[in-house]
Write a structure and sequence with these properties.
By secondary structure, the protein is of the alpha+beta class. The protein has 6 helices and 4 strands. Strand 2 and strand 3 form a beta hairpin.
């Protein structure tokens, strides 16, 4: 007489090998885990440069073996983006962190402002040329919204679920 527990165990192993393992092996590069407990390194990767770092850079960073190598990577990351090579001051990096601070100060509702849709657009594009706001729901029952206009781009954010979210499809030039 067959053992039902043994059959279940064999079926589970088979299922794992056939279905779960291929999914695990095909994990998107952006979800590659960072093998460091250093808070600064995690924050740098998951917040500070989340919109700047390329997939290749992210993969390389996560594959580094030591935190010392990761800190050297960070130095090189900013050196490559320095608009004035050879100068210690890096205007690009300084402006980037200024924008993060602004986003965190002005757009934080449920999560850090730098991780919101408005924060992302602000960090990547700077201050909009014009902002149209409707802080109260309109007469047609719509949500409060903001429209940010830049020279070449326009973005709309609707307040839903306690935070402003970018309306997709509102503008074809939106990042």
């Amino acid at each position: 007489m067959p053992n039902p527990q043994l059959h279940i165990a064999k079926t589970s192993i088979f299922f794992s090998l056939v279905f779960i393992l291929p999914l695990w092996l095909s994990v998107d590069q952006k979800t590659l885990p960072l093998k460091s407990k250093d808070f600064y390194l995690r924050k740098w990767l998951e917040q500070d440069v989340v919109y700047l770092i390329t997939d290749g850079e992210r993969t390389s960073f996560c594959k580094l073996k030591t935190d010392e190598q990761r800190y050297k990577f960070i130095e090189e990351f900013w050196r490559k983006r320095n608009p004035s090579p050879g100068k210690e001051e890096n205007e690009f990096r300084d402006e980037h962190y200024r924008r993060i601070a602004f986003a965190n100060e002005h757009f934080t509702l449920i999560r850090p402002g730098c991780l919101t849709d408005r924060g992302r657009i602000y960090i990547l594009n700077g201050s909009p040329d014009q902002i149209e706001t409707s802080p109260n729901a309109n007469q047609h029952g719509g949500s409060p919204f903001e429209i940010w206009r830049y020279r070449q781009k326009t973005f709309r954010f609707d307040l839903t679920g306690g935070d402003y979210h970018q309306v997709t499809g509102f503008d074809k030039t939106a990042k």
